[in-house]
């Protein structure tokens, strides 16, 4: 295709503002499969994505659009994931575009996630086309939202398209603006090949498929390609475009978006953000912005039934083929037996993997409380990274501990500012700034320890703002903190899977609350079970689970047999997620209890 008639764009929107619905309309209008059909037909294995109503994986679709100027244009729509866990993927897919539609709900207005993505788009010098969606809603206030876009983002919104993706209003105008406002790609066919990898997926027949935006040069089957960050080389087997099905073409040229297959064994070998060049005629510099993706949150995954360990290993191996960000390695816990320490981009990523393991592989798992990665500086001047609290060295060997910090921006209606500030304070946040978006809404900027966000921040923020706040964060580095390891002892034995790292000032309170919580969660046993919280050798809290009476059923509701059966069934169900720790039976909730003790 002629580069002058190519337009590469993506859609930026806050969750639920209508990105998928609009993409559907655009696909329908240009005669491609609808996005929902695509989900069903192409991505049916990712039903989780649809259920949770969030976009996890990027997609790229090539569309053909005959514009009002009489020319036929090739439009590449590159989809972006809509969650903070995947910010880096968003930034790479935006780097593959020249423009973006900014979809804002006409009733809700701008949200934190929208802003974060707009800034990413501006950093990538994209032309932004504002679209005010859902104008059909009775509560829609497009003029207020138009003003907000101008004031908050500083974009000219006088031409903003007033649209209803649901009712199909505004689609033609959106397509016309894409053609007239977004610049054609610039690229040089004569220069050495440079192609940006912005996503990948695993195909059982073709191996890892890389999604690329060609910036300079040409890529075609037979080319020996080199990944510039890793140095790995492969011979290109196939190149193609998504229509939305994978369709092979002869070559991809500067300005094009498409895929490359090269018998690559796993997506791990295809790094999002890396640059592909031609090994025989290489570019001297890679494209800017490549960053290795490091997992931020770790937890242990253990099969409830230890004979499922090989199945869990097999399942992780398969998921890893398709998920470059997932890390895992074998781990043993004296409490839980054989399992894996797994690393994730964030909490959502963690939940998705856990759910997939359970649903797609029929596993029943115990997950331990998530932990961030601590930098532990030792008295012998070395530094170790600790992602498993039970492995923290003895305190006399530790010079200091540093923990990851994030900069968080929280948007909230002004009535809830007090609640949000209180929450951030309690989470050891440092207030940075507060800005009024308009008369009713405020953005708060805080610096917070990442671990405090991992621990129930989302839930607390939601309940403190009746669901109205939105939230975004980015990592800003490591800072020293007064941190200690808190151990939990059941029946006198340390349960390694329950250890956690906590700020010294909170250790006593957290230890006490956790003991109380565990007392409620762990069922009575035939004997008395002491629960203790300790820092080193020093016990700071204690509770006792009293021994069970001889026969629970005997005192239960006289002789009603159905009640008894129900009780027995309930106990059986509860059993599924019980883990025998020493001689105490501990339910799954106990291992996560540390997350919900504030
Ligand atoms: P994620 O996939 O989670 O990022 O959400 P999304 O932004 O793609 O939102 P989606 O398209 O799934 O739409 C969210 C909800 O808004 C759905 O219930 C849609 O039916 C509804 N919706 C989308 N566009 C419109 C519109 O123009 N008018 C009205 N009334 N509802 C709309």
Account of the protein in words:
The chain has 598 residues and is an alpha+beta fold. It contains 15 helices and 33 strands. The strands form 7 sheets. Strands 11-10-16-7-8-15-12-13 form an 8-stranded antiparallel β-sheet. The N and C termini lie far apart (59 Å). Residues 41-45 and 49-58 have low confidence and may be disordered. Guanosine-5'-triphosphate binds at residues 13, 15-21, 53-55, 82, 133-134, 136-137, 164-166. It is an enzyme of class 3 (hydrolase). It is found in: Cell membrane.
What fraction of residues sit in β-strands?
A: 25-35%
**Mean residue pLDDT:** 86
User: Cα distance, first to last residue?
Assistant: 59 Å
Instruction: Count all strands and give the number.
Output: 33
**Low-confidence parts, pLDDT < 50 over ≥5 residues?**
41-45, 49-58
**Helical percent range?**
25-40%
Strand order, biggest sheet? 11-10-16-7-8-15-12-13
Apparent shape: globular
Q: What's the gyration radius in Å? A: 27 Å
Question: Which kinds of small molecule does this entry bind, naming each only once?
Answer: guanosine-5'-triphosphate
Q: Label the structural class.
A: alpha+beta
What is the assembly state of the chains in this entry? single chain
Number of helices: 15
Largest sheet, in brief, is: 8 strands, antiparallel
């Amino acid at each position: 295709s002629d580069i002058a008639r190519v337009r590469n764009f993506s859609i930026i929107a806050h969750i639920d503002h209508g990105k998928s619905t609009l993409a559907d309309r655009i696909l329908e209008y240009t005669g491609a499969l609808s996005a929902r059909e695509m989900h069903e037909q192409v991505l049916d294995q990712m039903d989780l994505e649809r259920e949770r109503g969030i976009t996890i994986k990027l997609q790229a679709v090539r569309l053909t659009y005959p514009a009002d100027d009489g020319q036929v244009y090739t439009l590449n729509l590159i989809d972006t994931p809509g969650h903070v866990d995947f910010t880096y993927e968003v930034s790479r897919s935006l780097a593959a575009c020249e423009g973006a539609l900014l979809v804002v709900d006409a009733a809700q207005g701008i949200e934190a996630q929208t802003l974060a993505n707009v800034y990413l788009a501006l950093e990538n010098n994209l032309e932004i086309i504002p679209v005010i969606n859902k104008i059909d809603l009775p509560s829609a206030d497009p003029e207020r939202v138009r003003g907000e876009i101008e004031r908050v983002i500083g974009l000219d919104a006088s031409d903003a398209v007033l649209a209803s993706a649901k009712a199909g209003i505004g689609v033609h105008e959106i397509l016309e603006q894409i053609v007239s406002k977004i610049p054609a790609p610039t690229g040089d066919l004569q220069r050495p090949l440079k192609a940006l990898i912005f996503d990948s997926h695993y195909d059982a027949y073709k191996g890892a498929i890389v999604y690329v935006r060609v910036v300079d040069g040409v890529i075609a089957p037979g080319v020996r390609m080199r990944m510039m960050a890793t140095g790995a080389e492969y011979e290109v087997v196939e190149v193609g475009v998504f229509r939305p099905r994978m369709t092979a073409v002869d070559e991809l040229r500067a300005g094009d978006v498409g895929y490359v297959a090269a018998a690559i064994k796993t997506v791990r070998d295809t790094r999002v953000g890396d640059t592909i060049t031609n090994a025989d005629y290489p570019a001297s510099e890679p494209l800017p912005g490549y960053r290795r993706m490091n997992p931020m949150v770790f937890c242990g995954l253990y099969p409830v039934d230890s004979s499922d360990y090989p199945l869990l290993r097999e399942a992780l191996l398969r998921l890893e083929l398709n998920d470059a960000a997932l890390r895992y390695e074998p781990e043993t816990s004296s409490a839980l037996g054989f399992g894996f320490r797994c690393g994730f981009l964030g909490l959502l990523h963690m939940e998705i993997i856990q759910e997939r393991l359970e649903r797609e592989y029929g596993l029943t798992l115990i997950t331990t409380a998530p932990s961030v990665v601590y930098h532990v500086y030792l008295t012998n001047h070395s530094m170790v990274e600790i992602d498993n609290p039970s492995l923290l060295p003895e305190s006399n060997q530790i010079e200091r501990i540093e923990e990851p910090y994030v900069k968080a921006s929280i948007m909230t209606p002004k009535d809830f500012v007090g609640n949000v500030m209180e929450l951030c304070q309690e989470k050891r946040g440092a207030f940075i700034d507060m800005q009024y978006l308009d008369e009713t809404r405020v953005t708060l900027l805080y610096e917070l320890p990442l671990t405090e966000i991992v621990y129930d921040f989302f839930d607390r923020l939601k309940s403190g703002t009746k669901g109205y706040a939105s939230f975004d964060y980015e990592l800003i580095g490591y800072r020293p903190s007064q941190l200690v390891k808190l151990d939990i002892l059941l029946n006198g034995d340390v349960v390694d899977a329950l250890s956690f790292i906590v700020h010294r000032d909170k250790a006593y309170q957290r230890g006490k609350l956790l003991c109380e919580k565990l007392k409620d969660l762990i069922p009575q046993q035939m004997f008395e079970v002491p629960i203790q919280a300790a820092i080193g050798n020093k016990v700071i809290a204690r509770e006792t689970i009293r021994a069970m009476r001889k026969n629970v059923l005997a005192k239960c509701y006289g002789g009603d047999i159905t009640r008894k059966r129900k009780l027995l069934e309930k106990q059986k169900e509860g059993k599924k997620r019980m883990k025998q720790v020493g001689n105490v039976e501990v339910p799954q909730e106990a291992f996560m209890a540390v997350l919900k003790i504030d």
